[in-house]
Design a protein that fits this description.
The complex is a heterodimer of chains A (107) and B (156). Chain A has two domains: 3-71, Winged helix-like DNA-binding domain superfamily/Winged helix DNA-binding domain (Arc Repressor Mutant, subunit A, Orthogonal Bundle), CATH 1.10.10.10; 75-106. Chain A has helices at 3-10, 13-24, 30-34, 41-53, 73-82, 85-106, and strands at 57-62, 65-70. In chain A, strands 1-2 form a two-stranded antiparallel sheet. Chain A is mainly α. The radius of gyration of chain B is 15 Å and the shape is globular. Chain B is of the alpha+beta class. Chain B has four helices and seven strands; from the N terminus they run E-H-H-E-E-E-E-E-E-H-H. A seven-stranded antiparallel beta sheet of chain B has the order 1-7-6-5-4-3-2. Chain B has one domain: START domain (Alpha-D-Glucose-1,6-Bisphosphate, Chain A, domain 4, 2-Layer Sandwich). Classes of the chains: A mainly alpha (107), B alpha+beta (156). At the A-B interface, strand 1, helix 5 and helix 6 of A face strand 1, helix 3 and helix 4 of B.
Chain lengths: 107, 156
Amino acid sequence: MEKNKVFRALADPSRRKLLDILRVDNGQTLGELSEPLDMTRQAVAKHLRLLEAANLVVTVWRGREKLHYLNPVPIHEIYERWIGKFERSRLQALYDLKEELEKDYEK
Amino acid sequence: MKNKSQFVYVTYISSSVEKVWNALMDPEMTRKYWGHLNVSDWKVGSNWKHEDASTGEIRLAGKVVESTPPRRLVITWAFPADAQAPEKHTRVTFDIEPVGNAVRLKVTHDELEPGSEMERGITRGWPVVLSNLKTLLETNEAMETKALFEHAHKRG
């Protein structure tokens, strides 16, 4: 899978939004995905095709419904490429700290 | 259908269908990219277990539901404490197909309880396992698994 397709797919805010929506509720139809977005079904379908071509979305047929699933594997491959095993634990500590601070802040 | 959750993961690997198939069930291979040994005779109806490579502790257990070498493997997947409670078993389907010079490996994990510890674990685990499997088969070297899985488990 070409990494260029992944970066190009992620460059668009609407496509990132679609991934965010699937992250919360995975396995949705085009109709369900179009609902919360201020876009035509055709526009959403086009974004989904690009996400699928980049392997960031995987589709599965269930009867007559085509369900869309978030596939984070290519993003993890990018992460592995630039973040080695030594940085990992330090970054994790920073991430945990950020989460902890934001949790308190939200209360 | 919607009350149980399902996740689908896909990776493309420059390798052969047979090598990917073998990598799922050869304990020496799974040790390298998964940090665990997948142990079974892989016959339909047999048990399988997922054993921590450093401590020998059994982390997961289940049964082989379907085996169509080298294309499709279906197993149940549960914490060892739930091994005797089939209603608590989740299900994992591996589909392997050739695509050009590569192989498409699709992992479908379903029958999951939304919000469960198992769901949290697998959503963190699969991207790590699959990208590490890809790295191992394409470069013959896996990432250091201990660091990988501390990372994957810690966020749980």
